Amino acid sequence: MRYSTLLIGLFLTAVASPAADSTIRNYEECVKAGHSTGKTAGQDVCLTPQDFRTFVKGLKPTIRQGIYGTITLRTGNCMPRAGTRGKDGTLNLPPRQDPCTLAVVDREVYIFPVLGSKYKWRGTYLPSDVAPLRVVRSKNGFYEVEVPAGSYSVLVEDEGKKYCMFGNTNDEACPVTIRAGELWEYQILINHASD
Question: Which of 9, 13, 23, 118 is 20 to 30 A from residue 33's alpha carbon, by CA?
Fold first, then answer.
């Protein structure tokens, strides 16, 4: 059974009972596992609901090992809305003055060794006294960073600070583990929207 849904600004077509797999590394693997596909910010995407990772179709990294992806900025009023049903069953939603939007943006991307509680992680922003291992600038929203095998934290510049989408309960900021010869797609969402 197929159904449509709206999740974090992504329009998706979901497949019932997709395979659960936290080792998915790119769009093709996500689709093959039967996860939701759709469009956001003008890009074809696939979403894994178990770990909320998004993969973009057609990204072609030139690196052989490391981390790559796109940077998307979410702005506007993204609060759920109440609407009315028409006689034909369609949902009518009132227009918004500040609609929810997603746009691919360029930013500096910072790669750190995995950041833990020793760095006094506070919410989504990192104190500025921590030095990154690598810094790259995205181009047309796309970034790629070649790194040796190991565990890293991936942050992005936002309003002059180093930003992470979220921290987990262990205070590790946006961790990614790269194995020898592995490419890992890591999409970054900067959220300035009202939820």
Answer: 9
